[in-house]
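Predict structure. Chain length: 117.
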Amino acid sequence: MQNLERVLAVFREAGGDDWSLRQIVLFVRIGIHGDDGITLTELSEQLDISQQATDRNCKAMALRGNINKETGEKTYVGYGLIEFRMDIYHAKRWNVRLTSKGKELWNKLTTIVGANS
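Prediction complete.
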């Protein structure tokens, strides 16, 4: 139980209390795939989550800029833990993989989970 509490604390540190279980599951699946990443379609199929929910939750874990149309001010939203990259084999597909910040979180999680393995 202690390790579970430590895992949750690491997620809170990375993104506050806004994490959903779906985002945690997506993050773990992306982390498992390492630097190669995984396509949004594969994530959706492997986890039996709709393509739209997969896309929405991945965007929440990425860092993206929004421009205020009235002021022109740019603000950033998202956790900055994953990044989207165009699939080199299929231009219409996107891969997602961990950013350096996401890798730091992944390493903390695997250390905690691996402590009892």
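Summary: Helices lie at 2-15, 21-32, 40-47, 51-61, 100-114.
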